[in-house]
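This protein record is not my work; I was only asked to verify it. Take the sequence as given and treat only the tokens as open to question. I have pasted the whole thing underneath without changing anything:
***
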Amino acid sequence: MLLLLVVAVAISLSSASSIPAEAPHNPLEHDSLHAPHFDGAEHNPQYDHEAFLGPDESKKFDNLSPEESKRRLGVIFDRIDEDKDGLVTLSELKNWISFTQRRYIEEDTGRLWRQHNPDNNATISWEAYRDAVYGFLNDLSAEELAQEENGISYKGLLKRDRRRWAVADQNLDDSLTREEFTAFLHPEDHPTMRDVVLQETVEDLDKDKDGKINEDEYIGDMYRPSEANEEEPEWVASEREAFSKYRDTDGDGYLTETEVRQWITPQDFDHSESEAKHLIFEADVDHDEKLTKAEVLDKYDAFVGSQATEFGEALARHDEF
């Protein structure tokens, strides 16, 4: 039940290919089911599909044939190509990704606003939201509230949402307007919520709860050995070196909140531009930093899903068992 709640919260809030050398691990980069963009050396294409199309639209492509996916992708290519020169530039792709992100946030907020505010009042109170989302907690014992699964408890989820609600509540009336509700649901995309996103990230990584991230906690977000004496892959050694050389700037063996902030939200970082660069890296065969329609369609599974790509991923998951 707890796992289902965690997945539901992740949905309400927010397979392999070559990986560009400059692509860093970022714990904020997850798809709508909270699967990371990069899980160690493994790349999650669903993250790119959702960044390119939006989570809702990407699901529609997963049920299409490869031929229909390519046809619709060709139509989207023409929309992205703003100057109609037959090429998609970094700027045009960045603009498209920014548009799909804004569209999804608006649609997701609208859906949940209507769900929690059927009378379309000007605000939603914390009491009403808490009763709707966490009302079942009233029937649980103290032990059940504190019980953890993967380090997460009902009590912890409620506490996190309460704190996030308070930060989003700019006029301190314990109710959220539509704009404030948007910040609450999608804090990673709202400037007033950056500190609470940082705090939540540190809490997720800080397994021993000492307020700092040590090297093993940093690695643990990317790599989990399947057995006790398993030899670490080479990329893990590279990440350990990155921790000591670049992340831990004061050399004390830990990441403070300031160092974590520089890692996950560096100054002047543009998420849409980063994702656009990643997609161009995946499809730009002639390395001219522009994409032709042929390049995009040849690498269509980097941009969109289909029945074929979903079937391939299902086979891969089956092989794991």
User: Anything to note?
Assistant: The chain has a mean pLDDT of 83. Strands lie at 38-39, 42-43, 87-88, 124-125, 148-149, 152-153, 175-176, 213-214, 254-255, 291-292.
